[in-house]
Amino acid sequence: MDFLEEGEYVTRRESMVTNQIMQRGITEKRLLDAMRTVPRHLFVPAGYKRYAYSDHPLPIGEGQTISQPYMVALMTNLLDLTGIEKVLEIGTGSGYQAAILAHLAAEVHTVEILPHVADKAGKILTSLGYTNIFLHTGDGSFGWPEMAPYDAIIVTAAAKETPQPYFDQLKPSGRLVIPTGGPSLQHIQRWTNENNEWIPESILAVSFVPLRGAEGWTRDEWPT
Ligand code: SAH
Fold first, then answer.
1. What whole-number distance in Å separates Cα of residue 49 and Cα of residue 170?
2. pLDDT tens digits for range 135-189
3. Which residues pair with 108 in a beta bridge?
4. CB-based contact 171:146 (threshold 8 Å)
5. Which atom, in ligand 1's list, is nearest to the CA of 139?
6. DSSP 3-state assignment of 187?
7. What residues act catalytically?
8. CA pair distance 31, 109, nearest whole angstrom
């Protein structure tokens, strides 16, 4: 198998934070500390552990990916979390992003549409002892109304356009971070509310796996 010494993971994690995250201008101390703490190598499949702290996304099975560390940091930073928030994540995937959020907010609700992927993420999050992450299996393309309203929503799969239910489930002071666009081009958008109107800000061109489900991409539209 592909395992390194525990100390080697710690060294690589430190250098990931310095060279990939701080180097690109992220300075928020609580976020950097969370990224120094969460053992990312436990969220990737056995054969990829030595690449867990590399500067790119990795496959996690079923055609899905764990995002590049910098992408996790950037999107999290855009949520402006102070520690008191209730956050919704759509697209649990490996569970890594949810773990980072758990260090920065009071309560994290994360939704995964693929039961097998959700099971795996649930096991690792439980084994790490997180008590403020609530994993829901189902279609999150129209949010998760049962637990609304949220202070922040982060979507980690590419939507066609921003589904209206996400706005409906946010507090007026809320923040929504979501990649939108098709198979060839997507952008991270950050939405905030000014005078009862949701205003988008386009942040960065990116490449995500598609958001599926009722409000998402069909396999005909976007095969993977
Ligand atoms: N945040 C993840 C990466 C997500 S990859 C991490 O930290 O590892 C995108 C995930 O979104 C995939 O697991 C995919 O199955 C899931 N997904 C796609 N459409 C979805 C939907 N409608 N509802 C919930 N999850 C969805």
1. 36
2. 999 999 999 999 999 999 999 999 999 999 999 999 999 999 999 999 989 999 9
3. 87, 133
4. no
5. 23
6. strand
7. 67
8. 18
Is residue 14 over pLDDT 70? yes
Q: How far is CA 219 from CA 25, 64, 169, 183, in A?
A: 37, 14, 27, 11
Cβ density class 105-129: b for 16+ within 10 Å, e for less: bebbbbbbbbeebbebbbebbeeee
What are the tokens at 100? 């980072």
Q: Which residues is 189 bridged to in the sheet?
A: 178, 202
pLDDT tens for each residue of 95-120: 999 999 999 999 999 999 999 999 99
pTM of the model as a whole: 0.98
Residues with CB under 6 A from ligand 1: 64-67, 90-91, 93-94, 96-97, 111-114, 117, 139-141, 156-157, 209, 211-213, 216
Q: What is the DSSP letter of 19?
A: I
Residue 211, amino acid? L
> Residue 200 corresponds to which tokens in the numbers above?
């988008």
Whole-number Å distance, alpha carbon 116 to ligand 1 midpoint, is: 12
